[in-house]
Amino acid sequence: QVQLQESGPGLVKPSQTLSLTCTVSGGSITTSYYAWSWIRQPPGKGLEWMGVIVYDGSSYYNPSLKSRTSISRDTSKNQFSLQLSSVTPEDTAVYYCNAFNYWGQGTQVTVSS
Q1: Percent of the chain topping pLDDT 90
Q2: In Å, what is the CA distance from 43 to each residue of 69, 90, 110?
Q3: What is the pLDDT of residues 75-105, one digit of tens each?
């Protein structure tokens, strides 16, 4: 069974870059069976898909976030990462990593000075 665990700072200052890592166990991030996504949920709002990285390292992004988002991976550590640049308080959310029906527990990120 695939397990995912997010890690990273819980507080980021406006204009800085938010960086999170998802550590995967129980499955390889190079498998074609899963796609590895980042999804967030701002307070009081619904889930927002941010982007995905697939088995060959290709990544695809939500058009509304594409200019600020980068998803990469470290196959030696079986991890994939999210970077979101030029953050504002509107980027405050719980951030999840996801592989189809498998979810991390989520990590709260607050953007504040």
Answers
A1: 96
A2: 20, 10, 10
A3: 999 999 999 999 999 999 999 999 999 999 9
Burial of 109 (0-12, 13-18, 19+ CB in 10 A): buried
Angstrom distance (rounded) from CA 70 to CA 59:
8
The DSSP call for residue 66 is G
Residue with tokens 């640049």: 85
Give the Cβ contact number of residue 107 at 10 Å: 20
d(CA 113, CA 7): 21
Question: Which residue's structure tokens are 């190079």?
Answer: 30
Instruction: Measure the CA–CA gap between 99 and 24, rounded to whole angstroms.
Output: 10
